[in-house]
Hints:
There is one protein chain. The chain is an alpha+beta fold. It has four helices and seven strands, in the order E-H-H-E-E-E-E-H-E-E-H. The chain has helices at about 20-40, 45-65, 105-110, 135-160; strands at about 10-15, 70-75, 75-80, 90-95, 95-105, 115-120, 130-135. Strands 1-2-3-4 form a four-stranded antiparallel sheet. Helix 1 (about 20-40) runs antiparallel to helix 2 (about 45-65).
Amino acid sequence: xxxxxxxxxxxxxxxxxxxxxxxxxxxxxxxxxxxxxxxxxxxxxxxxxxxxxxxxxxxxxxxxxxxxxxxxxxxxxxxxxxxxxxxxxxxxxxxxxxxxxxxxxxxxxxxxxxxxxxxxxxxxxxxxxxxxxxxxxxxxxxxxxxxxxxxxxxxxxxxxxx
Length: 162
Protein backbone atom coordinates (compact mmCIF):
# COMPACT_ATOMS: atom_id res chain seq x y z
CA UNK A 1 0.00 0.00 0.00
CA UNK A 2 1.40 3.37 -0.99
CA UNK A 3 1.17 6.00 1.73
CA UNK A 4 0.31 9.61 0.96
CA UNK A 5 2.29 12.56 2.27
CA UNK A 6 1.79 12.81 6.04
CA UNK A 7 0.17 9.38 6.24
CA UNK A 8 1.59 6.67 8.50
CA UNK A 9 0.63 3.13 9.44
CA UNK A 10 -0.88 2.40 12.83
CA UNK A 11 -1.72 -1.26 12.22
CA UNK A 12 -0.94 -3.86 9.59
CA UNK A 13 -1.73 -7.54 9.79
CA UNK A 14 -3.29 -10.68 8.42
CA UNK A 15 -6.08 -12.89 9.71
CA UNK A 16 -4.79 -14.95 12.63
CA UNK A 17 -3.75 -18.54 11.98
CA UNK A 18 -6.29 -19.44 14.68
CA UNK A 19 -9.08 -18.13 12.46
CA UNK A 20 -8.31 -20.80 9.85
CA UNK A 21 -8.79 -23.75 12.22
CA UNK A 22 -12.34 -24.28 10.92
CA UNK A 23 -11.04 -24.45 7.35
CA UNK A 24 -8.37 -26.98 8.38
CA UNK A 25 -10.89 -29.14 10.27
CA UNK A 26 -13.19 -29.22 7.23
CA UNK A 27 -10.20 -30.13 5.07
CA UNK A 28 -9.25 -32.90 7.49
CA UNK A 29 -12.80 -34.25 7.39
CA UNK A 30 -12.86 -34.23 3.57
CA UNK A 31 -9.45 -35.91 3.53
CA UNK A 32 -10.62 -38.62 5.98
CA UNK A 33 -13.71 -39.33 3.86
CA UNK A 34 -11.58 -39.48 0.68
CA UNK A 35 -9.10 -41.86 2.33
CA UNK A 36 -11.94 -44.07 3.59
CA UNK A 37 -13.44 -44.25 0.11
CA UNK A 38 -10.01 -44.99 -1.39
CA UNK A 39 -9.36 -47.76 1.16
CA UNK A 40 -12.68 -49.38 0.30
CA UNK A 41 -12.18 -49.00 -3.46
CA UNK A 42 -8.45 -49.63 -3.77
CA UNK A 43 -5.31 -50.32 -1.83
CA UNK A 44 -4.54 -48.88 1.62
CA UNK A 45 -1.03 -47.63 0.78
CA UNK A 46 -2.24 -45.53 -2.14
CA UNK A 47 -5.11 -44.20 -0.03
CA UNK A 48 -2.77 -43.05 2.74
CA UNK A 49 -0.46 -41.33 0.25
CA UNK A 50 -3.45 -39.64 -1.43
CA UNK A 51 -4.72 -38.54 2.00
CA UNK A 52 -1.36 -37.03 2.94
CA UNK A 53 -1.16 -35.17 -0.39
CA UNK A 54 -4.76 -33.95 -0.12
CA UNK A 55 -4.29 -32.67 3.45
CA UNK A 56 -1.00 -31.05 2.39
CA UNK A 57 -2.92 -29.17 -0.29
CA UNK A 58 -5.48 -28.07 2.33
CA UNK A 59 -2.68 -26.76 4.58
CA UNK A 60 -1.05 -24.82 1.76
CA UNK A 61 -4.35 -23.34 0.54
CA UNK A 62 -5.26 -22.21 4.08
CA UNK A 63 -1.83 -20.66 4.62
CA UNK A 64 -1.89 -18.84 1.27
CA UNK A 65 -5.45 -17.57 1.81
CA UNK A 66 -4.45 -16.17 5.20
CA UNK A 67 -1.27 -14.49 3.98
CA UNK A 68 -2.95 -13.18 0.84
CA UNK A 69 -5.23 -11.01 3.01
CA UNK A 70 -3.74 -7.86 4.50
CA UNK A 71 -5.46 -5.37 6.78
CA UNK A 72 -3.98 -1.89 7.22
CA UNK A 73 -4.99 1.08 9.35
CA UNK A 74 -3.34 4.46 8.75
CA UNK A 75 -4.06 7.87 10.15
CA UNK A 76 -6.10 8.59 6.97
CA UNK A 77 -7.78 5.35 5.87
CA UNK A 78 -8.61 1.69 6.35
CA UNK A 79 -7.36 -0.72 3.69
CA UNK A 80 -8.10 -4.38 2.90
CA UNK A 81 -6.18 -6.26 0.20
CA UNK A 82 -7.11 -9.82 -0.75
CA UNK A 83 -5.59 -12.17 -3.28
CA UNK A 84 -2.29 -12.98 -4.93
CA UNK A 85 -3.01 -13.39 -8.63
CA UNK A 86 -6.46 -11.79 -8.76
CA UNK A 87 -6.64 -8.91 -6.31
CA UNK A 88 -9.51 -7.23 -4.53
CA UNK A 89 -8.80 -4.01 -2.67
CA UNK A 90 -11.17 -2.08 -0.42
CA UNK A 91 -10.51 1.30 1.17
CA UNK A 92 -12.45 3.61 3.42
CA UNK A 93 -11.39 7.08 4.50
CA UNK A 94 -11.42 7.49 8.27
CA UNK A 95 -13.85 10.38 8.17
CA UNK A 96 -16.38 8.04 6.49
CA UNK A 97 -16.25 5.45 9.31
CA UNK A 98 -19.32 5.85 11.50
CA UNK A 99 -19.38 2.70 13.61
CA UNK A 100 -16.88 0.02 14.50
CA UNK A 101 -18.36 -3.26 15.76
CA UNK A 102 -16.73 -6.49 16.86
CA UNK A 103 -18.21 -9.97 16.63
CA UNK A 104 -16.92 -13.08 18.39
CA UNK A 105 -18.65 -16.41 18.70
CA UNK A 106 -17.88 -18.77 21.57
CA UNK A 107 -15.09 -20.59 19.71
CA UNK A 108 -13.66 -17.27 18.49
CA UNK A 109 -13.59 -15.95 22.07
CA UNK A 110 -11.69 -19.03 23.17
CA UNK A 111 -9.25 -18.61 20.25
CA UNK A 112 -9.06 -14.81 20.83
CA UNK A 113 -10.01 -13.96 17.25
CA UNK A 114 -12.96 -12.08 15.84
CA UNK A 115 -14.37 -9.82 13.17
CA UNK A 116 -14.15 -6.05 13.24
CA UNK A 117 -16.93 -4.64 11.06
CA UNK A 118 -16.88 -1.04 9.83
CA UNK A 119 -20.01 0.90 8.93
CA UNK A 120 -19.07 3.61 6.45
CA UNK A 121 -21.11 6.61 5.35
CA UNK A 122 -22.36 6.88 1.82
CA UNK A 123 -21.12 3.53 0.52
CA UNK A 124 -23.01 0.52 -0.75
CA UNK A 125 -20.14 -1.81 0.22
CA UNK A 126 -21.72 -3.45 3.25
CA UNK A 127 -18.94 -6.02 3.61
CA UNK A 128 -16.05 -3.93 4.91
CA UNK A 129 -14.63 -6.02 7.74
CA UNK A 130 -11.36 -7.28 9.14
CA UNK A 131 -12.20 -11.00 9.56
CA UNK A 132 -10.33 -13.42 11.78
CA UNK A 133 -8.10 -10.82 13.43
CA UNK A 134 -6.29 -11.65 16.61
CA UNK A 135 -7.46 -9.61 19.60
CA UNK A 136 -10.09 -7.53 17.77
CA UNK A 137 -10.26 -5.04 20.66
CA UNK A 138 -6.73 -3.92 19.76
CA UNK A 139 -7.83 -3.29 16.17
CA UNK A 140 -10.75 -1.19 17.45
CA UNK A 141 -8.31 0.77 19.65
CA UNK A 142 -6.04 1.37 16.63
CA UNK A 143 -8.99 2.71 14.61
CA UNK A 144 -9.96 4.98 17.48
CA UNK A 145 -6.37 6.26 17.73
CA UNK A 146 -6.29 6.80 13.94
CA UNK A 147 -9.55 8.75 14.01
CA UNK A 148 -8.28 10.97 16.85
CA UNK A 149 -5.00 11.62 14.99
CA UNK A 150 -6.90 12.39 11.80
CA UNK A 151 -9.24 14.79 13.59
CA UNK A 152 -6.26 16.48 15.27
CA UNK A 153 -4.54 16.94 11.88
CA UNK A 154 -7.77 18.31 10.40
CA UNK A 155 -8.16 20.76 13.31
CA UNK A 156 -4.51 21.90 12.93
CA UNK A 157 -4.98 22.47 9.18
CA UNK A 158 -8.17 24.43 9.77
CA UNK A 159 -6.53 26.62 12.44
CA UNK A 160 -3.46 27.35 10.31
CA UNK A 161 -5.72 28.26 7.37
CA UNK A 162 -7.60 30.90 9.39
